[in-house]
Amino acid sequence: MNNNNSSSRLKWRMLLVTMLCYLFFYTGRHNFGWAVKGMAASLNIPYSTIGWISFCMLIGYAIGQFVNGNLADKLSPKLMIAAGAYLSILTNIAISFSNTATMIMVLWGLNGFFQSMAWAPGAKLINNWWDEHERGKAFGFYTMAAGLSSAVTYLISIVLLQQGIEWRMLFRLPVLLLLVTATILLIVAKDKPEENGSAENQYSTDNGSDWLDRYKEAFRNKKFLLTSLSFGFESMARYGLIFWVPVHFLGKNWKDNPGNIWVTFLLPVGMAIGAICFGVLSDTLFKGNRLKAIVVGMSVSAVLSLLIFIVPTQQIALSSVLMLLTGFFVYGPQACYWPLSPDMLGNKLTGTGVGIMNMCGYLFAAIGEPFLGYVIDITGDSNNIFIVTAIACVLSATIALFVSRMGKKTLVKPALD
Length: 417
Description:
417 residues; 15 helices; mainly alpha; globular; 0% strand
């Protein structure tokens, strides 16, 4: 009994310390959307170029996911997360001293790679401590931390902007919190149970397999690849909202109508709530049918995006409710995607699978960013971003529905598991 209680406390400690670190990871990434208006004005950068700067970060993140997810199955997840945090902090500070779009573009691309050193390794660390029966819950909490990270970054950025600070400080001040939490993780976290003296060795970090074999095993699984494609459109919708919603509302004379800027804060709040709810519901209401949960979430997101497009921003109360619900349904399904990696590929390929899936997500998000910037420049109306996100949500739901209707037989576990 004591051993069980001790094991339970340890797995919760590992989950919570990983969540704490990731809670502040977006201070080095989602701060960019809030700096855009001041940056564009002071450096005379058009929004289409801003879109390409965001594209570079997302491509750097996608490449990093492909590489670092695989490495997480071989190296120490804890050390990878901490290294990524420290390098991202340095890159953000360097951007705050930059004066050209080219320099910012290069540094922001590097920052994307450094930021990618956290998510898949964190998923690997959590998977090492939590078994498949509670995996949905654990990943739900982890995804909630990412959603709350957006909320924390939004809140800090809003407060700093209301204090009248310049855009450069948005790259210097928020990341100091990441410095603290990454150091805490480095001290407290253990990569796997046996490092704490446990006799169990169910989820070994180093499985002895070749890195190329891990990639081959993942790319042979058609259901996993199609699921990654669905995730790509979900990420396009999510990032389209996260990045451009602040631009949309800041352009509406927000200083004269301060209620507008607080509407945006409800988007990441809804995302955080959606993550934990979908994670738990996938294990309970949907009885492990995570694809069905994804179809429901993305379908509702499409409808909500269209409603935001129709409702005037002056109707703050209604816009607030819609923004909260949109965040809930567009991000909640992410908690269902991550467990599908070990579910479809096996525990030993968790990092590789999460990395490939996230790479696909950020490639699609990267394509969407300059396109959305172009749409705003051409139409002169940032409200059109909600049409694009609605289409992406429909495509994500459609592909997930197709995957769920593929062969019903249980997948044979890969040889590497």
